[in-house]
Amino acid sequence: MKAPGRAGQPPGRAGRRSGPAEGPVPARLRPLPLAAALALLAATSAAGLLIGAADLPAGAVLTAMLDRLPFVELHSGLSAIERNVLFELRLPRVLMAALVGGMLAMAGAGYQGVFRNPLADPYLLGAAAGAGVGATLVIVVTPGDPTYTVPLAAFAGALGGVLLAYALGSMAGSGGGSGAAVLVLAGVAVSSFLAAVQTFVQQARTDELQQIYAWILGGVGSADWRQLAMVAPYALVSTVVLLLHGRLLDVLAVGDEEASSLGLSATRVRLVVLVTASLATACAVAVSGLIGFVGIVVPHVVRRLAGGSYRIVLPLSLLGGAAFLGLADLAARSVVAPGELPLGVVTAFVGGPFFVAVLRATRRQVDP
Description:
The protein is an all-alpha fold. It has a single domain, classed as ABC transporter involved in vitamin B12 uptake, BtuC (Orthogonal Bundle). It has 17 helices and no strands. It has helices spanning 4-7, 11-17, 31-50, 58-67, 80-115, 127-141, 150-173, 179-204, 209-216, 225-244, 246-254, 256-261, 266-288, 294-306, 310-332, 343-361, 363-366. Helix 3 packs antiparallel against helix 5 (80-115) and helix 7 (150-173) crosses helix 13 (266-288). The chain is globular, with a radius of gyration of 22 Å. It starts with a helix and ends with a helix. The model is unreliable at 1-26 (pLDDT under 50).
């Protein structure tokens, strides 16, 4: 027998209440999508290790990798130069591309969950531009080697850029504008302003101009073990915190009132995810420069293929972002070989049309 309250509930209200879920959404990550993401990451990583100016046999590379394991002694047959190419050039580059791509994709998914906006992205919300300003200021102002202070400055700049864009969007949105469109426009405005600040700093210190421009173009070609050790702690903390908040972001997606009725502080969850996503963006930008669109392309593909629950989107975005940027880096160093394209250019070729497609798909939300 149905409860009286439920029997008297208008059909329209019931439909609106089930609307945010848009049908059944799996709450847990299933083995098949996880295995597919891991296989894709393994394939792109293997291609990154094997493809390059120096021809390294696949069997010898695998043997050399296994030889680095404890209590394993194998003879790969690689020369000393080939081992240096593998372990000092290609392996750090592949790992750095995976780390940067994973962080940017997870940050994008986190921002989309916080703002409940499918267009939220580290690049569009001003986080990447803010991190760029912070890193540039450190490069210009800090005497000596600023390697270990760059991530902290980039984090402060990323968080400041997102908060500025969100505040500007909130003020404009209070006048009746559409949330998605206003937030995107606010992010573009903040990014443009921060880019102007960065240009001013560059022109004031032309002696560091080459170093700054090389960083702005984006890339992981200069990755080494020292940089990996520097950003790994930030990446680990960001990954753990964001993955632990997947279920809470699912609750927020239903609505703040429902979250409060379950004893969840929506403000606290948003603040934690916002800070953590900014940290993930900062540690990626600090070592790779400005690489756009990863945070919007990968989470949307994951939602299409595996479901909309953030307990699924976050871990698969981590793996998918790592594979995506690894593939983009492989294209960057192969398309115009022996030259190399900036990595940000490659992601923009993919992300630009993809963003237009997402914008069209959400036109009902973004049209005034």
